[in-house]
Amino acid sequence: MAAIAPHTPADPADAEELPRATGKQLRTVLLLLLPGLLWLAIFFVVPIFTLAGTSTQTPSGSGIPGEFVQTFHLANYWDAFSDYKAHFARSFLYSFLATVLCLAIGYPLAYLIAFRAGRARNLLLVLVVAPFFCSFVLRTLAWRQILADDGWVVSSLKWLHLIPQDATVTASAVAVVAGITYNYLPFMVLPLYSSLERIDPRLIEAGGDLYGNGLTVLRRVTFPLSMPGVVAGTLLTFIPASGDYVNASLLGNTRTTMIGNVVESRFFRIVDYPTAAALSFILMAIILVLVVFYVRRAGTEELV
């Protein structure tokens, strides 16, 4: 048996050099993180605490609009939720429908770009992000023209007898969901493409060699391997869509109002800051719980 060499202590000079090198690296990392940490502190942490303080205020009683005092009135949260629970439900319903539609439309498109586009891949990616070069409001207003009663979409649906002749699509829940789906579709396509593009094509070929047809390979191989992109895309679509108010304001009516419209109205029209702040916190809390539950159920806990 070979003799085991006795353990020799490290050189004292090396032992002194290691802490200095580690400290230098730590200072470098902190300096690189400092701008981002300052940005988060100024534009995220401070507003969050300010919003939390505002949510527990009550009117001062002076009769001056917008003047409130800090009374730590936690009942604001229950009052806000009980008064607008229907708007919360409507917001999450529209967001869920839009997310499902984005996934149904975006996955085939991302698959086409990743595996079938060839030289047109870059052009298709540019077309996906091209809507971002136009204002969000202008893109939403364009849907009012697309879904107008005398537009080609509604006219075609009436000609095919898919909707009644006196039906109106604008100022409806259908128009709101369509607008949300269109505006947030790129947020679904890009993560899906990134995830699909990293899949080794040999794995898909191996599925075909094992006598799997196209649908079976997609269901058993491609889709599971692209789950990180599915999770990221659905989160990037659902979270901002839940608080959206532009689509409901421009494409909906009084019966399609989302919680974002209520928050906007309470902040800028009614000047009821505590209720608006409480609604914002409730919305953030519900989204956080849903996201944690969804990510854990999807089997990607490392995203939390």
From TrEMBL:
It holds the Pfam family BPD_transp_1. Residues 88-294 form the ABC transmembrane type-1 domain. Keywords: Cell membrane, Membrane, Transmembrane, Transmembrane helix, Transport. The keyword Ribonucleoprotein does not apply. It is found in: Cell membrane. It is a multi-pass membrane protein. InterPro entries: MetI-like (IPR000515), MetI-like_sf (IPR035906). It comes from the Bacteria. The keyword Membrane applies. Its main location: membrane. The chain crosses the membrane at residues 29-52, 92-115, 122-142, 162-185, 276-295. Belongs to the binding-protein-dependent transport system permease family. CysTW subfamily. This is ABC transporter permease. It comes from Kineosporia corallincola. The lineage of its organism: Bacteria, Bacillati, Actinomycetota, Actinomycetes, Kineosporiales.
